[in-house]
Structures are given as C-alpha cells and as structure tokens.
Amino acid sequence: MSAIQAYVRTTAPRGRDTERVGPFLATYSPGTPHPMLNYAIPDDGARPTPAEIGALTEAYRRRDLLPRLEYFTDVAPDLEKLLVEAGYGLERRVPLMTCAPDGRIDRPVPTGIRLRAPGSDEDFRRMRAAQNIAFGESPEIGDAEVEQLKTGSGRHLLAEAGGVVVGGGVALEVVDGTTEVAGIAVLEPYRGRGIAAALTARLTREAHEAGAHTAFLTPGDLGIGNVYARVGYQPAGECVHLSLA
C-alpha cells in the first residue's frame, strides 16, 4: 500500500502547484477550483498536530479552495480520527483494487465498438466530453485541457460506435512498476454491453506490457467495481476523501 501511495504522491503534483504543510503535500491545480483536482496527500504514518491541520486548512482557504484530502487509510491509520476531531467530514470511502499481470483477464471488444488511441485534438475533446457527461459533469472542453491531455504521459483510449465517441479511459504513467487506471466512463445509452470491461482490460494490458507489475484503480461504486473484478482486479484496501466545508 505504501508503494501505491508513493505513486500518487509522485504523480498527483504533475501540472499542479505544490506546498509542504507539516506532514502533508498540498496540491493546487491552476485555473480550476474543482475539488478532485485540489487536495492534500499525507506522509506515511502522519499524525499531525491540531496546529498542522489548521495550517493545511488555511493554505486552501487562502486560495479560495475547499480544504480536502485523498489518501489510502492503511498508510496513515490514525489520520482520519484526527481530521474528524478538527472538523473535517468524510466525503466518501472507496475501495482500492489492484491487478498483477498474472491475474489480468482479457475481455473481447463488443461487436460494433472500436477501441483506439485519440489521434487528434478533436478526438481528445470528444473523448473527454463523453467521460464528463458519463460522470455528470459539463461536456465543455477548453483548448487548455485538450493540450494538457495531449502532452500528458498517460495512455488514453477511446471507445467509438459508428464514429461516435461513447467512452474512454487512461492508464497513467508507470512509476517504479506501478500505474493507475482511471477515468473509465461510458455514455449511459451504451452501458451494459461490456465496453467498460474492454476499455479496462486493454488499458491494463498495455500498462503491464509497458512494465507495470501493479495496476490499481478506485471504483466509484459497486457496479463498476464488479466490472473491474471481471477484468482481474481484486480488493486491496480503501481510499478516503475528507474535506472541511
């Protein structure tokens, strides 16, 4: 678990401003207040004092951002209690799932569906718009976000049906044999056909072939967790999101 948290601690700051605040690495994404893109990560074994938690809160308040943390509970088992005592609330508790090369289960691409890497700005724009719609967010994608997607080090994959982009996902860069598979999303009318499983299986295979011995993800709900299990992912822990409104 420590290796996976170290991976997040290494990759989350990419493209973000960072600041050390006590036993926390605070990350801030320029140009967006989105809470999922602005959060702190604790050191392993973190047991911050009330003053250190207060300093972290103030660091986010100064930037008009929601004070927020995301981390795997096993690496800092005492932290949640300390944060709750300081007024933080639990947003959600999500499972962590991992897949090793010998546990991966390949899945066929459904009939009528094509999986491919985005090849143009418009591909990236349509892929991210489909992901955002699937996640209940705005489909409007600016040029800056498209450029960030193009220049990032992840392996993007989109799903297409008759020329319409219906979903996508990404396997982030491999660091010390670890990678994260994220953003798996399929538009509602196309769900239940095995597209998400095929996206996840392809991205996981490509990550393993690129040198990852551990691929991990954090499913947002039980339904998608069952999809990941069919690809070979197994429960390995939990991630918590806490914030102070």
From TrEMBL:
This is Acetyltransferase (GNAT) domain-containing protein. The keyword Iron-sulfur does not apply. The keyword Transferase applies. InterPro entries: Acyl_CoA_acyltransferase, GNAT_dom. GO terms for molecular function: acyltransferase activity, transferring groups other than amino-acyl groups. It comes from the Bacteria. Residues 113-245 form the N-acetyltransferase domain. Keywords: Transferase.
